[in-house]
Structure formats: C-alpha cells, structure tokens
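Shall we go through a protein fold together, starting from nothing but its sequence? Label the sequence line and the structure token line clearly, so we can match residues to local backbone shapes. Would you write everything just below, so we can both look at the same thing?
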Amino acid sequence: MASPSSHPKDPLHGITLETVLRQLLDCYGWKEMGCRIPIQCFRNNPSVKSSLKFLRQTPWARERLENWYIHDSLRDKNRG
C-alpha cells in the first residue's frame, strides 16, 4: 500500500475511514468527538461499528471527521 505522502494532493490516500475514526477516538474520546461533531452515534451509546455505518451514509459528517483528522495530522506534523 502506498504511503499517504506519495499522493500529496490527497492526504487521506491509503487511510481508511475506520483508521481515521479510531485514531481520533484514541486521542480525544467519544465525549470530545460528540462535542466537535454533534451526532448521536458519538453521543448516545457510541460504538465504532455504529459510527462507521452512519459516517459512510452521511457525507457531511464524514467530511467533518476527515477534515478534523487532516487538521490534527498537519498540526502534529508541524510540531515534530
């Protein structure tokens, strides 16, 4: 699999939605995710499975999650 840096125009190339979700979850937890993206699957009995299902069916929510991930990744990259 190609690394994300080999496709500079698409920072999410090669990164699955599940990876994005799990990395943000590990860093911020469900509570913070529910505050930043106010959707029920993050706030009410959250699970990775239900969140992935919702995000795959809801383009605006997926876009917000991916943009948050990209912003967070760029911030970490500029620190190190």
